[in-house]
């Protein structure tokens, strides 16, 4: 007999999502998710602000350049990720970009000690397949300098840890038995 587990997280998120049904007197029908609208406004301000400072007000030709990139990013970025159901696509994009730019710093012994510089993955190793494409571009020398020297991936601190986890399922009888031992130990400790 197969057992089925259910995750309610996504259902609660979509059920409790607030929606905006009217915006500046314009009826939005069933409503747009408010979190998506807020993200869209932030992206629009971050994109259009510098364009207005550099180029001024848009005309008929450049209006698309002002509006389309934040709109496309908002529409595709607020969709649920196919890799991890609880995340939006924009979260996955941000995590991927952070990994490529800043890298991965390993957590050692649950953060008891910080990783040394030799334990980080070098930039060239993180950009493995993408670096060749960038090196062939006109920006090749700049990319080469940014990637740094060609170095091997540092060796690990030791052999890999093998986990041999065996889950155990305790029934009510085992819990009562364990509780009985604990209660007996407390009773004997209190009587002395």
Description of the structure:
It is a single chain. This protein has 192 residues and is mainly α. The chain is built from eight helices and two strands, in the order αββααααααα. The protein has helices at residues 9-15, 34-55, 63-77, 89-101, 123-126, 128-135, 140-147, 172-191; strands spanning 19-23, 26-33. It has a two-stranded antiparallel ribbon with strand order 1-2. The mean pLDDT is 76.
What is the topology?
Layout: H1 9-15, E1 19-23, E2 26-33, H2 34-55, H3 63-77, H4 89-101, H5 123-126, H6 128-135, H7 140-147, H8 172-191
Antiparallel strand pairs: 1-2
Helix pairs in contact: 2-3, 3-4
β-sheet strand percentage: 5-15%
Molecular shape = flat
- Percent helix range: 40-55%
Cα gyration radius (Å): 27 Å
Unreliable runs: none
User: What structural category arises from helix and sheet content?
Assistant: mainly alpha
The helix count comes to 8
Along the chain, the helix and strand elements come as HEEHHHHHHH
Instruction: Indicate the mean pLDDT.
Output: 76
Number of E-type strands: 2
Terminal residue distance: 51 Å
Q: What are the main properties of this structure?
A:
mainly alpha; 8 helices; 192 residues
Concise structural overview:
The chain is 51% helix and 7% strand.
